[in-house]
Amino acid sequence: GRCARCGENVVGEGTGCTAMDQVFHVDCFTCIICNNKLRGQPFYAVEKKAYCEPCYINTLEQCSVCSKPIMERILRATGKAYHPHCFTCVMCHRSLDGIPFTVDAGGLIHCIEDFHKKFAPRCSVCKEPIMPAPGQEETVRIVALDRDFHVHCYRCEDCGGLLSEGDNQGCYPLDGHILCKTCNSARIRVLTAKASTDL
Q1: How would you write the pLDDT of the chain (199 residues) with one tens digit per residue?
Q2: Which of 8, 40, 91, 92 has its CB surrounded by the most CB atoms within 10 Å?
Q3: Range(s) within the chain of domains with CATH label 2.10.110.10
Q4: Quick check: 42 and 53 in contact, CB under 8 A?
Q5: How far is CA 66 from CA 9, 74, 180, 185, in A?
Q6: Which GO terms describe its cellular component (predicted)?
Q7: Which CATH class is domain 75-118?
């Protein structure tokens, strides 16, 4: 047959070889990059081009985390390439392959749960982050007097009644205090009585 590289006839015993369903002269079957002979050597065939192992590895993308070549499956995210096991949350280090994730302003990758733990507003009562319950994507945050509250923490400071539901629904702030209507009225009566006795 004819050599797939040079086009000349391959004649004589031991002068030719077969690779990638083609015939080559032994001297023509070389790495496309470094020209090292490949007969009897491991090689990689990419689009009918033969590469020796070191040259092939040099053509591969490198992982953005470990800088090693990606030999098998490439995970692409945030415009970069990763080994699937290297694409992890910066906080819990869990692999995020196939798991929803988000990126903070500094470009750091977080699982959704850790992102909420780190960046969610904190409740002014219990100091815990206000974040969705497990399995949920949204939550309710109450803001009053420039402070954040969980729904269950949004209570009257005097009687402890929930301000988000029931008969005492609504906030009636007084001097920076979160109060229900009844407790607000009671404090105003006390303040009015004190002001009249001070005269």
Answers
A1: 888 889 899 888 888 998 888 899 999 999 999 999 998 889 999 888 899 999 999 989 999 999 999 988 999 998 899 999 999 999 999 999 988 899 998 889 999 889 988 888 999 999 999 988 877 778 889 999 999 999 999 999 999 989 988 766 889 999 999 999 989 999 999 888 877 776 5
A2: 91
A3: 16-59, 75-118, 121-198
A4: yes
A5: 47, 13, 57, 64
A6: cytoplasm; focal adhesion; nucleus; stress fiber
A7: mainly beta
